[in-house]
């Protein structure tokens, strides 16, 4: 399992549509929400970056039968990203 650095992202209607990520030895790329969920469920940590500082890893939060990606463990039915950059 490895750390995936999250350097940017887009949200629409309460769901992540795209994440800008960097992988060790692979370089920057964009992934969609389904890929992010899959990687997190496989044990990879998605770690947001702010001014070259690592923030707390994103969390998977279950609300009913749905799963959301959040920087906290708040049980809200929407994805959320911290300020990135």
Features:
single chain, mainly beta, 1 helix, five-stranded mixed β-sheet, two-stranded antiparallel ribbon, 85 residues
The multimeric state of the shown protein is: single chain
Compute the CA-based radius of gyration: 12 Å
Q: Given the structure, what is the number of helices? A: 1
Distance between the termini: 24 Å
Q: Write down the overall geometry.
A: globular
Task: Give your account of this protein's structure.
With 85 residues, this protein is mainly beta. The chain has one helix and seven strands, in the order E-E-E-H-E-E-E-E. The strands form two sheets. The protein has a five-stranded mixed β-sheet, covered by helices on one side. The chain is globular and about 35 Å long.
Q: What secondary-structure arrangement, pairings included, does this model have?
A:
Blueprint: E1 3-12, E2 15-23, E3 27-31, H1 33-41, E4 45-50, E5 53-54, E6 59-63, E7 66-70
Question: Would you kindly provide a brief summary of this structure?
Answer:
It is built from one helix and seven strands; from the N terminus they run βββαββββ. It has 85 residues and is mainly beta. The chain has one domain.
